[in-house]
Amino acid sequence: MGVQLTGRQREAGSLLDFIGNTPLLRLRKFEQRFASVELYAKAEWQNPGGSVKDRPANRMVLEGLKSGALKPGKIILDATSGNTGIAYAMIGAVRGYRVRLCLPSNVTHERKRILAAYGADLVFTDPLEGSDGAIREARRLYATDPDLYFYPDQYNNDGNWRAHYDTTGREILEQTQGRITHFVAGLGTSGTFMGIGRRLRDEKPGVNLISMQPDSPMHGLEGLKHMASAIVPGIYDPTLADENLGVTTEDAYACVRRLAKEEGVLAGISSGAALAACLRVAERVGSGVIVTIFPDAADKYLSERFWEIPD
Ligand SMILES: Cc1ncc(COP(=O)(O)O)c(C=O)c1O
Prior knowledge:
There is one protein chain. α3 crosses α7, α7 packs across α8 and α9 crosses α10. Strands 1-2-10-7-8-9 form a six-stranded mixed beta sheet. A four-stranded parallel beta sheet has the order 5-4-3-6, with helices on both faces. The protein has two domains: 178 residues, Rossmann fold (3-Layer(aba) Sandwich); 97 residues, Rossmann fold (3-Layer(aba) Sandwich). By secondary structure, it is α/β, with parallel strands linked by helices. The protein is globular, with a radius of gyration of 19 Å. The protein has ten helices and ten strands. Helix content is 40%, strand content 18%. β4, α5 and β5 form a beta-alpha-beta unit. It binds pyridoxal-5'-phosphate. The site of pyridoxal-5'-phosphate has 21 residues, from α4 and α8.
């Protein structure tokens, strides 16, 4: 007689079931400088595609399948600075859909390799136009043949922030037993900040929501946007944040190096930026439970020169 599988057991086996439920990492070495601060980071690199973007990509694809906008034979198309593309490429491979991605040609070699390994088609755009150039190209491609493509448009798709409202935000509340006092996250499409921020606000109205972004238009914080000089995502609502901090690329690099040496965490650059913002908040408040997001790991940035800068 065969073994009867039920509930989660029956789902076991699909890579997509590994998305979410990431651990919450306590950063004890960084806490030490402050009177009574607890500092935590959601270890989003533990998602199967290696980043936080597995959550919204999976949600937007599922919604497309449910609504019928994504049907067999269609190509998943989007503009992405990398991680959402990696997530779509992984999901496309699992589900049997072709994936076409528009991205600035200067994204790291490692990212291009990863996307090609999953079998995605890459459309490179002018590096001087940054992620906005990629967005314009995706819009142009979609307009030329709307029947060929499923275009989730992560910058304007409510599924992006709702993925975080339903999963990441809920997980943070559970993992801190509702003790979180401050939430800090970087802004790219803003889906992470909007979704988690709204969930926390709904369940714990007194929580402080602090968004973070690059302090200038020309920056090295891959995945993040300098909103004042960028195409502002449709899902972004600047009034949600209690405060918005600007972080320099140099501070982010320094925090990435410190995370490796002091906590043994090889994190990506936007994680360093998140930590830099958290340390500023901790300095000011002196006590509290601060939670941030570490969107990805260092593997895609290992060839960058900033690792060699002595501290
Ligand atoms: C490395 C990295 N950090 C941060 C973000 C920002 O996340 P969000 O788009 O949810 O604002 C992204 C988004 O692509 C990213 O790739």
